[in-house]
Amino acid sequence: MKRPNDQIFQLSLTEIAFTLTFILLLLLGYMVFEANTREQALERELAAAGTVQRNRQALEQAREALAQDLRRAGANPDEAISSLLSQSKLIEERNQLKMRVDDLDKQLSALTELKRALDSAQSRLDDQDNVRTQIVEALALKAKLEKKLLEMQQDDVTDTASRRSPASAAEGTSAASSIGSGDASAVRQDSSDFASQILAGMSLREEVQKALHKELNRTYVIGQEASLAAELVSARKQLAAQQQIPNVERVAKENADLRGQVVFLKAKLDARGGRDYPPCWADEKTGKVEFLFSIEIAPDGLHIKPSWPEWRAQDAAALPGIDKLTESSPLSLPEFNTRMQGIDRLSKAKECRYYVYIKNRVTDLESFNRSRYSIENFFYKLELRG
After folding, report:
1. What confidence score (pLDDT) does residue 172 get?
2. Which of helix, strand or coil describes residue 320?
3. What's the rounded Cα separation, in Å, for the pair 336 and 349?
4. Model-wide pTM > 0.70
């Protein structure tokens, strides 16, 4: 009799049992590993929670100690702690605002450079417009000149014909040709003189236009030449009269200024030091410098205030553009540089420098240096601290 086969799919039941047991052991090992990992994570969290708890307890103890100290000092702990918290928030806000101000300052510098470029481009456009206007005026003048020359030639021919006598008319063609050539030469000479006068007039007009714009900030208006000439002659007469009859008070002030400069320079030489130019204002007895302005460098610009002594008020009022400097405060650097041109030309003509006080109110070193360099272009300075 044949023995029954106890295998299923060529595997014995024993082999299948061993395989299942091995799989269960693997699952059990994985579950143990997961349990250990979770246990370690929980232990770390528990340790961190204990550290947080200890830190919280330490902070509470520190706060309680601070509150006790404040009570002993007679202060309200809650108000003091609230003030500290508010101050910390204000410090953070201040830092953010400072960063914002720095960014705005950089943007302003970039915009200043852009404005300078635009102004330069605008000036070039203005020059082109002026050239175009001059060309149109030159063409119109050329047409008038040609018309005038033609009239002069016709007048000369008429005058020559009227001056001829009957006898000379009968002398023949050769005499007429000789007279005609002489008249033509005279016409060319008159035309040349007239052209020279026209060119001289154009040159004079150009120089007057430049001088009016540069010195008086006025515009040359065509058609007002007569009134302008009368004004110039009157001003020249007044200047000649002033030169002939010196102003005693003005001369006395100039001498006092010169004596003060001499005393100042002598003191500097005795001290073996000094600057390139003497002060425009100095006490004639002591040589002490008398200051013109007090300039405060602030975030919104330059604040300019008078600092001259009382007896210098009349001299200060006579300085060119003084009102635009003191009444329009604060000024940006481009405005300051533009409005200082009159005083700068005057000091250079006198070979002296005015002195000013400066006080810093900005925290940005770059902004302060830009303002300081602009001021030093025109003045000698004394920097006030604090």
Report:
1. 45
2. coil
3. 20
4. no
